[in-house]
Amino acid sequence: MYQDNIVLCGASAYEQKFYFNQDFNALPDHVKKELQIMCVLFTEDVGGILRLEFDETLITGIPDLEFHIAAWTLMSDKLLQLQDYENVYLYPVVSEEKIKELFDLCDIYLDINHYNEVYDSTNRAVNNSMAVFAFENTVHRRDICLKKNIFETTDCDKMIGRIKETMYEQSIYQDLIKEQYKKLYIAAAGMFEE
Q1: What Å distances lie between residue 113 and 16, 30, 88, 99, 139, CA to CA?
Q2: Burial class of residue 172 in the structure, from the number of CB atoms within 10 Å of its CB (0-12 exposed, 13-18 middle, 19+ buried)
Q3: How much is the mean pLDDT over the chain?
Q4: Is 60 within 8 Å of 31 (Cβ atoms)?
Q5: Closest CA to 7 of 55, 41, 57
Q6: In this model, does residue 49 exceed pLDDT 80?
Q7: Nearest alpha-carbon partner for 131 in 177, 95, 185
């Protein structure tokens, strides 16, 4: 479908420029403005270049896994084209009720959102006995995510292998869930000690 990752937007501290992919013009203006502010402030603070992108490798690498992708906003035409994959289900402008339904339905949670975490999703996933996988640059809750389930974006194939291993080996899945609960308990206990 696409040859490369889909770039949503980016900013450069070196050139002091912001880029927004016009394929995502259907996003509400306030969301586009927030993306610009977030990207520009981040690059001003940290320096360098920031690029927000979407990669289809997971979808094509695990064709027998269903991907339920939810967004609180409208979705771009390019993102909507992912519906062409039989294993992708999109929920633009999703309701809280649908989010709850998805947490109850799914066994795996991919913490691959570049933005702020919404509705304490990682915590909800662990509490719903979902195996959590993330990328180094997107993980929101290191305190409850298992280190072995956090991958560099360049190691997408390793993540796919780990997800498949977890999907097809019930004992691996059960052990992973127990480890996550343990980390969640430690994280919660730590909150009360402070």
Answers
A1: 25, 19, 16, 15, 8
A2: middle
A3: 82
A4: no
A5: 55
A6: no
A7: 177
